[in-house]
């Protein structure tokens, strides 16, 4: 599931296209490390705590959706770097902490975490901490090359986008994909 399209991979492709592979490394590491940390936290109690407090879960649900829409807006309206230079604005990819924190707002990450815990980290009714640790390490090992792949796809795509208009259209497309990734979150009952 780490390699399939979703919010992280759309944002990584956009980051690669707009900033290149090297400048996107903190974003890539934030995703690759942030998800296993989130997975372990959900497996070892955060998920159960949210189930016990539905109002907190609902608030996080809508805050996450709003944050994803905010990110989608920024991706969709991003201008090519050379257009920002005259105004002195220096754009940047997501920082490590921002990308790691984004995992908590990512509906696909929640789906993977919850289904992963249910399918592979439980023994009867109990969560197995050793299994959670093994799965978290596996997610890290799998995530590292997949985030590099998606960022490289974006960086490679940027070579094909020769005009500022083409780059703006690419960014608009990536922003719309982020909005579309909200569908599971918004249709959840």
As laid out across the biggest beta sheet, the strand order is 1-2
Largest sheet data = 2 strands, antiparallel
Strand content: under 5%
List segments where confidence is low: pLDDT < 50 over at least 5 consecutive residues: none
Description:
The chain is an all-alpha fold. The protein has one domain. Helices cover 78% and strands 2% of the residues. The protein is built from nine helices and two strands. It has a two-stranded antiparallel sheet with strand order 1-2. Helix 2 crosses helix 7. The mean pLDDT is 83.
Attribute tags:
about 190 residues; mainly alpha; 2 strands; about 0% strand; globular; two-stranded antiparallel sheet
Topology, element by element:
Blueprint: H1 7-23, H2 25-52, H3 54-76, H4 81-84, H5 96-102, H6 107-120, E1 122-123, E2 126-127, H7 129-160, H8 164-180, H9 183-187
Antiparallel strand pairs: 1-2
Helix pairs in contact: 1-2, 1-7, 1-8, 2-5, 2-6, 2-7, 3-8
Task: Sum this structure up briefly.
The protein is mainly α. The protein contains nine helices and two strands; from the N terminus they run H-H-H-H-H-H-E-E-H-H-H.
């Amino acid at each position: 599931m780490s390699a399939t399209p979703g919010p992280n991979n759309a944002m990584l492709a956009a980051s690669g296209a707009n900033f290149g592979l090297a400048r996107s490394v903190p974003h890539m590491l934030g995703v690759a490390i942030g998800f296993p940390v989130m997975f372990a936290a959900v497996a070892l109690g955060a998920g159960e705590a949210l189930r016990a407090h539905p109002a907190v879960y609902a608030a996080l649900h809508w805050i996450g959706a709003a944050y994803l829409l905010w990110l989608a807006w920024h991706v969709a309206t991003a201008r090519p770097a050379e257009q920002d230079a005259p105004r002195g604005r220096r754009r940047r990819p997501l920082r490590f902490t921002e990308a790691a924190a984004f995992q908590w707002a990512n509906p696909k990450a929640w789906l993977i975490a919850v289904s992963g815990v249910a399918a592979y980290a439980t023994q009867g009714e109990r969560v197995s901490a050793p299994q959670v640790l093994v799965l978290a390490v596996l997610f890290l090992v799998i995530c590292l090359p997949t985030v590099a792949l998606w960022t490289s796809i974006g960086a490679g795509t940027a070579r094909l986008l020769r005009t500022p208009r083409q780059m703006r259209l690419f960014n608009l497309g990536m922003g719309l994909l982020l909005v579309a990734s909200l569908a599971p979150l918004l249709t959840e009952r």
